[in-house]
Amino acid sequence: MNPLELLPGKIAELVHELSVLPYNNMEGHVTSPWTLTNYVVWGLIALVTTMIMFIVVANREKKQIALAAQSGDVTALAPAGRLVGALEAGVEFIRDMATDVIGPKDGPKYVPLLGTFFFMILISNMFGLIPAGKSIGGTIGGTVALALISWLAFVWIGFSKNGAYGYLKSLIPEGVRQMPPAGRIILGGFIFLLEFISYFIVRPLTLAVRLFANLYAGHIILGVFSGFVALFWPIFEKDLAWSIGGVGAGALALVFLILMYAFEVFVAFIQAYVFTILTAVYIQSSVHASEH
Amino acid sequence: MEGSIVEALVGLSAIGKGLAYGLAAIGPGIGIGIVGGKALEAMARQPEMAGRIQSTMFIAIAFTEALALLGFVLTFLL
Fold first, then answer.
1. What is the dihedral of CA B55, A256, A214, B69, to 10 degrees?
2. Which residues, given as ranges, of chain A have pLDDT below 70?
3. In chain A, N or C: fewer CB atoms in 10 Å?
4. Residue stretches of chain B with pLDDT short of 50
5. Rounded Cα gap, residues A210 and B26, in angstroms
6. Of A100, A206, A273, which has the smallest distance from its Cβ to B58's Cβ?
7. Top-level CATH class of B2-77?
């Protein structure tokens, strides 16, 4: 039997596995909005992991700062261990990004929001790379929720910093606002319409779709290549026979699978970073709306 | 007769899906190439600015890539 004949079935199985299902019943359907799905469960696991990591490290840092203040021994302030060092580097990275993008005065205020996005998405993506694990970015519902939080944040900041009129006025460039009335109304109205769609519809939509499409494509690629390995090295498929060409093709697929896995770890970082830096850029455009 | 028309429609929709993603990937592919190449050029000219250039490059890539990703999602919706 030709192993490739079984591939469409494998892909259908893979797509089923990646869809939103009740967490305890792979065959069942999501019937009510309150069903606990696999993505919700894995998202909660990622959330709890992030919280525990930061609470433990922050408590330890507090203790060390108190110790250093008491004894005057500055070596107590040095990060001890890999976890503390990694988290400190991550928080510093977010803080530098916020001051770089938003500005030294307003930046530090938004570090908690940006840091939560970054670490939550990163750790959830990492859980998504565990076989049978799920990332909240792997379903459009999860990414829409994240993008809505980001959207609410930058729209709220825009309205509260500039006022409703000031924020909406800032959608039209300065030069167009000083044109004669005819140009102001026709060109300004057109630009306002474009910018309004771009600010309030395209921004959250692309935030959500970018994260979802990257992770979903990654999961599909990993699944298809592991499907190739399973079909060419039929350890579990009883009705397929081993062949020399099949073993070679399976080895090639396995090498490619390992390379793609490494690439997906990189994508997990990049997508968390891109989501965070785009949120920072949008917040910057809201904070400084009155200047352009 | 009925069956063959249905089969032909299934095949044509598969071709359409493939074309949708393939065509959506052309422009962003060229665009990301230009962004990456220019960023490399800038970093080679001014290595001390590499950090800022890199983060700006990622933002530019993210905007360009969005078009390809919309095509990817459209492939599943078709």
1. 100
2. 1, 292
3. C
4. none
5. 17
6. A273
7. mainly alpha
CB of A210 less than 8 A from some CB of B: yes
Contact B65 A209 (CB under 8 A): no
What pLDDT digit, counting tens, does each position of A5-58 carry?
Answer: 788 888 888 888 888 888 877 777 777 788 888 899 999 999 999 999 999 998
| Contact present, A232 and A246 (Cβ < 8 Å) | yes
Measured between alpha carbons, how far is B75 from A237 in angstroms, rounded to an integer?
31
Question: For position A272, what pLDDT does the model report?
Answer: 92
pTM, two decimal places: 0.86
B78 touches chain A (CB under 8 A): no
Partner A contacted by B69 (CB < 8 A): yes
Q: Which of B58, B70, B72 sits opposite A277 (nearest CB)?
A: B58
First to last CA, chain B: 25
Q: Does B40 touch chain A (CB under 8 A)?
A: no
Per DSSP (E only), the strands in A199-288 are none
